[in-house]
Every structure is written in C-alpha cells, then in structure tokens.
C-alpha cells in the first residue's frame, strides 16, 4: 500500500512539475516581490531604520523575514493550481482510476515545496549580490533549510485547505495576503521593542518572530536559544492542524 501511494505521488508530482517547467514565470513572479522589498528596504529605507545592531548590515538582518515572505507568496499558486484542478474535473477523473487518493494532494504539496525552494534560492542569490554575508557552517545551513521546509509544508497545507474550499479563483489565492504581511508585524525588519506595547506583544508572540530569530542566529553563528524550539513547535503544530483539516475537507469533497 505504501509503495502504491509513493508511486502514484511521484507520477502526479511529475505532472505538476512539468506544468511549472512549462511556465517558469510563476517561480520568477514569486521571487519578484521579495526582491523588490529588499531593494526598497536596503537602498531606500535602510539608512533610516534602526535595527539594533552595531555590526553587520541591514540585508543580513532582514533576509530571514524576506525568505518567509517569499514562501508566503509562493503558496498562493498552490491554492490556485489546486482550485483549477477541482474546477476542471480532473479529481473526478482520478477517482475513476486506480490511484491512491492521498497522492493527489501530496503531489501538489511536493510541487509547492520544489517551486518555493527554487524561489528562495533566487532570492538568496540576489541578497548575496546586494551584500548579504554569512559565516554559517554547513550544519547551520542544513538547519536553515529544515526550518524553511517545515514552514513551507505548514503553509502549503493551509493553501490546500484554501484551494479545496474556495468558490472563485481570486478566493483561492487571496488567503495568502495576511500571511505575506505577517512578517511586517514581527522582528523581521525592526526590533519589537521599537513598537507600541500592544503591537510589540503581538509581534513577540506570533510564529514569524521565533522563526526569523532562529534563522538570523543560524546565519550569524550565534546561539539560537529557545527561539528554535518555539519556531519548530509553531511549524509542526500548524502543519499537523492544517494537514488534518485539508484531509478532512478532501474526504468530504470526494465522497
């Protein structure tokens, strides 16, 4: 049974990835907004922003938040592609074939993971050209990759819920807008102690701040402290809840 699911998932993932390869502009479009934000913050606003560090550059400070915005932008396409598949009747066609049902959703999730990793690589490449520097060890880079992968999976399963539940194309992708703006109310661009007390409380207790702090510490080769465990707890918890919600909606849709 497991081999059957894995085989079907691989075939359907290949189908989805071929669609992306035929239209690579989705990956480029996903990377454009974060890159534009980096240019704006570093070259226009960066000199006026106090980011609480006497060492390092502002691009080093803000890159973790930009990477999360990149992922939040990319998952909108997952909801969009899933919604189109639902509307085209391809799900009904798959049900008439000997295909493991979970593989249909997992194909979209894995495609999202690959596409978002590609977008993140593009953004990191541009950041290096803009002066981003890190002495992170291979182990630290592996930890960064692991955190970003967990974050991508968690948001992607949220995108699956949106894609399955939406009534229109616009509704399928619009859910990602609050997720894109969430890093702005965190420590991603300025320290939380510069914010008004109620805003600072929210910023300090929402998931993005813990994730950003963990990534920033890993890039700077500093101790991650409790931020890492808080970030992992948020990612794993959100992933678990979103997965259960998506599978529940999917079962009702195909029953």
Describe this structure in words.
The protein is built from 11 helices and no strands. The protein is mostly helical and 255 residues long. The longest helix is centred in the N-terminal third of the chain and has 31 residues, at 58-88. The radius of gyration is 19 Å and the shape is elongated. It has helices at residues 2-22, 25-45, 58-88, 90-95, 101-129, 138-165, 169-174, 176-181, 197-204, 207-219, 226-254. The model has no long low-confidence stretch (mean pLDDT 83). Helix content is 78%, strand content 0%.
List descriptors.
255 residues; mainly alpha; 78% helix
Radius of gyration: 19 Å
Strands, count: 0
The ordered string of helix (H) and strand (E) elements is HHHHHHHHHHH
- Helical residue percent? over 70%
Sheet of most strands: none
Tally of separate helices: 11
Label the structural class.
mainly alpha
Uncertain residue ranges: none
What share of the residues does DSSP label as strand, in percent?
Answer: under 5%
Distance between the termini: 20 Å
Gross morphology is elongated
Give the averaged pLDDT, no decimals: 83
